[in-house]
Write a structure and sequence with these properties.
Radius of gyration: 17 Å
Largest sheet: 4 strands, mixed
Number of helices: 7
Order of helices and strands: HEEHHEEHHEEHHEE
Bound molecules: iron/sulfur cluster
Strand order of the largest sheet: 3-4-5-6
Structural class: alpha+beta
Number of domains: 1
Length: about 200
């Protein structure tokens, strides 16, 4: 997505979610996922804004690009950061943007009715939707939601939708995760021990 497509007038404000959430592996800065960057300012902002690394310059969450999502979808407020997915998109979904709803706000976030309506709407329209969760210093686990949720969405049964989302979240949380570490100023992945 080019920065020309950012929603006009929308700013990050006090949100610093990506300064915690992102993995950065640039020559001048390596940062592990889920670990607050040493350059984050209290109350939002970046100590080295003008010279921040390329990853920080280039990366925006999808809320910055999606005019249909109101200000309540700012990631620090919603407890969900939406990321574009480029890999692992199931056959039949490649022609549309795929979205990962990474949960950072726990169960409260996944039972938010606005989240349920939004993800349900995208699934009905044929967009691939994933849920993910990652602990600090680990890779995230992504679960494909379309197949899991389609029957519940068709039934319009909110209880069933919430139960299905809870199950998906449990899988995201419980699945062993690859460890992300810094060695010799480079990010390395240590594969999770399979149970
Ligand atoms: S997560 Fe999105 S809204 Fe928050 S600081 Fe990053 S780009 Fe801005
Ligand atoms: S360098 Fe600045 S913009 Fe980049 S992660 Fe750190 S605080 Fe955020």
């Amino acid at each position: 997505m080019t920065n020309d497509l950012l929603v006009k007038g929308r700013e990050c404000g006090a949100c610093t979610v990506c300064c915690v959430n992102l993995t950065i592996n640039d020559p001048e800065l390596q940062k592990l996922p889920g670990v607050k960057c040493k350059n984050t300012l209290k109350g939002g902002g970046c100590k080295i804004y003008k010279s921040r690394p390329k990853t920080c310059r280039d990366w925006y969450c999808m809320w910055r690009f999606m005019p249909g999502l109101d200000d309540s979808w700012r990631p620090d407020l919603k407890g969900i950061v939406i990321k574009r997915v480029f890999e692992g998109i199931p056959a039949g979904y490649e022609n549309k943007v795929a979205l990962d709803f990474e949960i950072i706000g726990g169960k409260k976030a996944i039972h938010d009715i606005d989240f349920i309506n939004t993800v349900g709407g995208y699934i009905i329209q044929g967009f691939a939707c994933f849920m993910s969760y990652g602990k600090p210093r680990t890779a995230t686990t992504m679960v494909f939601l379309n197949d899991l949720l389609s029957a519940a969405i068709e039934s319009r049964n909110i209880t069933l939708i919430k139960e299905t989302l809870s199950k998906a979240y449990k899988v995201c949380v419980k699945t062993p995760k690859d460890i992300v570490a810094i060695k010799n100023d480079e990010i390395m992945i240590i594969p999770a021990k399979k149970k």
